[in-house]
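Most newcomers find our protein records easier to grasp once they have seen one. There is nothing in a record beyond a sequence line and a structure line. Getting from the letters to the tokens is the skill we practise here. An example says more than a description, so a record of this kind follows:
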Amino acid sequence: MRLGQCMLIGWLATHMAVASATAISATGIPAIQISSQTVTEVLTAPHSQSRATALATLYNDNDFRELEFNLSLLPPLKQEAIRSLLVDHAAAHPVLDQYKANWLQSQALRKPAFTVVEQGDGYTVTQTAFHYATKARAQVTRWAQMLKAQAMHAQAERGELILSQWLAGDLASKTVQRDILLAQLPSLSAQAIAQLAAQFSTDKALLWLPDNAVIAALAAASGDEAVYHLLWRRRSDQYSLTELNRLAQLAPEPMATAQLMAATINPSLKTSAYRALVALQPLPVSTQDFLSGRLADVSDGQLVASELLSQGYLSWLEQLVTGSRNQVLQKNIKTAISRRL
């Protein structure tokens, strides 16, 4: 990543949060009140449209000195309208570079020159007449996140990305960085993914992740048993359930079946995991052995027996009762059968 891009990301992190307040508190000529009809008329006027189209060429060519000079020659109302149309043009052509991002950031920081007052039943609302500042800020934020994603991807491929540091910060930063990581995972090499997965065995700080999104995604991408073991031991949420359902679709593939068995240790997931295992047709030998063992479990035996009965395994359960001396197994199966009658 170029030095200028790094500086822009840092600058954005410091200043973006106060951009709106900076614009509003800036000293200068007070905003002029106009009607919403006036806003519509000036935005849709043929001259505004043609002028914006002409100046969009300067935007595309990164000739922002000439662009700003041309804008400065326009009357204030028309200038604001064309700035708004140019930001719309930028949004329609979202491939940015540092020059375009800098110009858009300057638009985000401009003080509103015109406002619109809306009257309601007992209330009055004053808002900016032209909303290009918010649109420009959103584009710059997306671009900064793209640069951050590229930097993260390169770090991961070099084996230098420390997950506990990448996922640190305030709640908003954690969410953004988590989403960037999840979006980049599919394009990472197997070596990079394995290196990230291995960190869950060595870095205890990762045990305190707020949700299972990263753990589930890395487990799915790497197939790492240790990461799966951590996922099933943690409190379940939408991410662990989604991964369980994905594995159910892959079964009876051996790895998927093995992890469905492992997931039964989770109190919130075990019913779904047993149900997925029992639904396999025909039951793999390894799954039969696993379920037979669980039928003798004090906690899960009746649940397993009920799920097997729902899939038509009555005769097999009766054979197990006859052939086993395990009283817990016999009791669990008989209880489940009695409840089905």
Remarks:
- The chain has a mean pLDDT of 91.
- The first strand starts at residue 32 and ends at 34.
